[in-house]
Amino acid sequence: MRVLLVAPPGAGKGTQGALIATHFGIPHIATGDLLRDHVARETELGRAVRDRLSRGELVPDEVVLDMVAAAIAEAKAGGVGYVLDGMPRNMTQARALYEIGRGLQMTANVALHLKADDEELIRRLLARAALEGRSDDTEPVIRRRLAIYHEVTHPIVDWYASRGILVSVDAMRPVDRVARQILTALESMRSLVEHVPEHARRPIDLTGLGAAFGRN
Ligand code: AP5
Ligand code: MG
User: What is the pTM of this model?
Assistant: First the structure.
């Protein structure tokens, strides 16, 4: 299974990405985590990107594309898929990622879109700030991250819909309910993604199915 997570800050990319990775036995490749690791280790790259992360601005495309290309090549060598969290963030990255995937015969099977309201996202991230102290979890920076998401990241969702690999999920519900719906959907798609070509597929919108998976 090869999954991309396209979602705003706080929607649950890290939370659900880890659960998907465990369920399918695939690596969870999180660009934000990789970048924060560089900052913590004070590598040259970490020093170069630290201020952008703290301001909530995107880092240059080449930086993340190089990291992700290496991680996907490693997944291929290991004979497994991946769940990619935090990439792509704009149309340039989406197209470049598709080319990387084509080159390795590792294009994504599913683009998973987690939908949630901005006010809920701000509430979650401020709650996390008290526990983890991430440098970008202050209200002005959270609002900046959300603005960038709406301006340059969200438009990618339509591109994945037109490619037939989009699955949209309501991420406003508790973690376990969201997870159950995602894993059920991905499990039921296993044979579909292996046997039905992208161009013959249609986007799947599960956001109206809250009741079936527990609304609260
Ligand atoms: P990144 O690390 O990707 O941060 P983000 O997109 O802002 O998202 P978060 O990690 O804050 O949220 P999440 O969606 O993972 O939610 P989580 O599961 O943690 O990127 C950070 C920075 O790195 C960027 O600003 C940029 O500078 C740079 N960067 C990264 N990738 C880049 C790229 N491709 N190009 C350029 N720059 C890039 O959940 C959040 C909180 O809510 C947690 O406390 C969690 O416990 C809780 N929670 C989760 N789900 C639920 C739920 N359903 N109900 C209640 N609480 C929940
Ligand atoms: Mg995250």
Answer: 0.93
